[in-house]
């Protein structure tokens, strides 16, 4: 899947910054620590309770971010070539889809999230974070944070395909957490933080569904001020790339790789199969109501809504 080459990238849509610094110590060290961190923080949720433990109390301050899309990101052709440009144009596509569909389907106004690209470490409204936490959304400052080096980690360490829609799924999932914030659902995970049918799992699966909802419209809805959509028509391979990324970060797959066993009672994000099914529920229907994981009687069956 590719962007239409003539799409114009907004030079002010994201902030860029951060840097390696010292980064402090990571309490959950080594490769196993990375898996636990991804399990806890990858693809959203509120990281405020864990960021201090991840980065360590004696970390140096991260460089401040500044407004501005990277200078080499100008068109859809750049987004097809460079991963940071892909994040920016995916964000613009998400703005277009949610700016239309959220008020139409829910009567809730869409306020775009802030998006920050960083390298190494960054200061956030939820605390200081290093790249070890993976991409995440901070409800406190309504900002999604991405170190694009993670997308290669997704392939190398978690076995995802490296296709563009696999990366765009991650961006769309984080913005899905912003949609939950706008709709007042973000706090529901805290009431029931882990387990196979917990509020946390339901929140994450709903963000997967919202990512699929974006994909439903992204190759059809014209970009603002034009007649072409942001994306060229999605192929079966594109969808398989997104499904590969969703499966790669399922709780069961990560637990099996880390410990050799699966413990559903400690799940926070859902199984690989559940993540794929809810992604497809959003993609096939394009409907917010089809993503109501909190009303689902069976998370293995997205159609099982009360």
UniProtKB/TrEMBL annotation:
Q: Which stretches of sequence are listed as region Disordered?
A: 1-20
> PANTHER family given for it?
INNER MEMBRANE PROTEIN, PUTATIVE MEMBRANE PROTEIN YPFJ
Where does the record place it?
Membrane
Listed A to Z, the keywords are: Membrane, Transmembrane, Transmembrane helix
- Could you tell me which Pfam families the record lists for this protein? Zn_peptidase
Q: How does it sit in the membrane?
A: Single-pass membrane protein
Principal cellular location given in the protein's record: membrane
Q: Secretion signal: which residues?
A: none
Protein name in the entry: Neutral zinc metallopeptidase
């Amino acid at each position: 899947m590719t962007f239409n080459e003539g799409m114009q990238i907004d030079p002010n849509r994201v902030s860029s910054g951060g840097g390696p610094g010292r980064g402090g110590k990571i309490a959950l060290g080594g490769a196993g620590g990375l898996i636990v961190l991804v399990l806890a923080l990858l693809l959203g949720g509120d990281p405020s309770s864990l960021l201090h433990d991840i980065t360590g109390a004696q970390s140096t301050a991260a460089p401040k971010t500044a407004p501005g899309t990277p200078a080499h990101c100008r068109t859809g052709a750049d987004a097809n070539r460079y991963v940071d440009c892909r994040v920016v144009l995916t964000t613009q596509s998400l703005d277009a889809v949610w700016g239309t569909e959220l008020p139409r389907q829910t009567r809730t106004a869409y306020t775009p999230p802030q998006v920050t690209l960083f390298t190494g470490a960054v200061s956030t409204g939820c605390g200081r974070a290093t790249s070890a936490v993976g991409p995440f959304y901070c409800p406190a400052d309504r900002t999604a944070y991405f170190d694009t080096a993670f997308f290669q980690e997704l392939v190398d360490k978690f076995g995802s395909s490296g296709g563009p829609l696999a990366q765009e799924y991650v961006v769309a999932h984080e913005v899905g957490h912003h949609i939950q914030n706008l709709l007042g659902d973000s706090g529901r995970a805290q009431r029931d933080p882990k387990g196979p049918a917990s509020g946390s799992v339901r929140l994450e699966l709903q963000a997967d569904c919202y990512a699929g909802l974006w994909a439903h419209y992204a190759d059809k809805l014209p970009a603002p001020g034009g007649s072409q959509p942001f994306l060229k028509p999605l192929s079966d391979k594109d969808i398989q790339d997104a499904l590969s990324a969703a499966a790669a970060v399922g709780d069961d797959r990560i637990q099996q790789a880390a410990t050799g066993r699966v413990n559903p009672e400690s799940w926070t994000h859902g199984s690989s199969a559940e993540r794929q099914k809810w992604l497809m529920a959003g993609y096939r229907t394009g409907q917010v109501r089809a993503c109501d994981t909190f009303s689902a009687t069976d998370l293995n069956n997205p159609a099982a809504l009360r």
